[in-house]
Design brief:
The complex is a heterodimer. Helices cover about 0% and strands about 50% of the residues of chain A. In chain A, strand 9 and strand 10 form a beta hairpin. By secondary structure, chain B is mainly β. Chain B has no helices and 11 strands. In chain B, strand 6 and strand 7 form a beta hairpin. Chain B is globular, with a radius of gyration of 13 Å. Classes of the chains: A mainly beta, B mainly beta. Chains A and B meet through strand 4, strand 5 and strand 10 of A and strand 4, strand 5, strand 9 and strand 10 of B.
Chain lengths: ~110, ~110
């Protein structure tokens, strides 16, 4: 399977704990995006990388959120001191620069108790 | 006001019906328009992608963009129960800028 992969697929955590998600994009794609989707809503943009550079961040990305893409390959999204409002599906997508089509992974479903 | 508006439905149609899904947008800078299909608890799957105004057809699916009225449509012909999913419209300002702007999705059920 050469699509976007995400790990873990599900995560249950207690409020106040830190969590980290991983995304592996399609191998030749140099752009990687993170979105958040809550029930009944469309995905909302969080941040994106071109290679290893983080080029844009949404104001949704509070200082408790941090994303990295070392060496321009996989990416991690960390949420510190989780809150119940962080419960959502976290989606990763990738694309090739110059092509607007973004391909999504299966998502990581986070539940904060 | 969200930049892309979409009626969430739900929409329920019999098998074989023609389905029309619609979105409106407010930002004149949008140039690229997509439709994604999302099954329950799965990631969005790209269905159709169009640039600027016009129509694009792919099998039973037709995407239509009218930039003068800022209106995006997806038509599904001969709908099948396997088409039951949430359909998300999305828009993009261009390749130098990253994000997609999504509507909230329309939940479609096609019953046999």
């Amino acid at each position: 399977d050469t699509g976007v992969s995400q790990d873990p697929r599900h995560k249950i955590t207690k409020r106040g704990q830190n969590v980290t998600f991983r995304c592996d994009p399609i191998s030749e794609h140099n752009r990687l995006y993170w979105y958040r989707q809550t029930l009944g809503q469309g995905p909302e943009f969080l941040t994106y990388f071109q290679n290893e550079a983080q080029l844009e961040k949404s104001r949704l990305l509070s200082d408790r959120f941090s994303a990295e893409r070392p060496k321009g390959s996989f990416s991690t999204l960390e949420i510190q001191r989780t809150e119940q409002g962080d419960s959502a599906m976290y989606l990763c997508a990738s694309s090739l620069r110059g092509r607007e089509t973004q391909y999504f992974g299966p998502g990581t479903r986070l539940l904060v108790l | 006001q969200k930049e892309v508006e979409q009626d969430p439905g739900p929409l329920s149609v019999p098998e074989g019906a023609i389905v029309s899904l619609n979105c409106t947008y407010s930002n004149s800078a949008f140039q690229y328009f997509m439709w994604y299909r999302q099954y329950s608890r799965k990631g969005p799957e790209l269905l159709m992608y169009t640039y600027s105004s016009g129509n694009k057809e792919d099998g039973r699916f037709t995407a239509q963009v009218d930039k003068s009225s800022k209106y995006i449509s997806l038509f599904i012909r001969d709908s099948q129960p396997s088409d039951s999913a949430t359909y998300l419209c999305a828009a993009d300002r261009g390749s130098t800028l990253g994000r997609l702007y999504f509507g909230r999705g329309t939940q479609l059920t096609v019953w046999p």
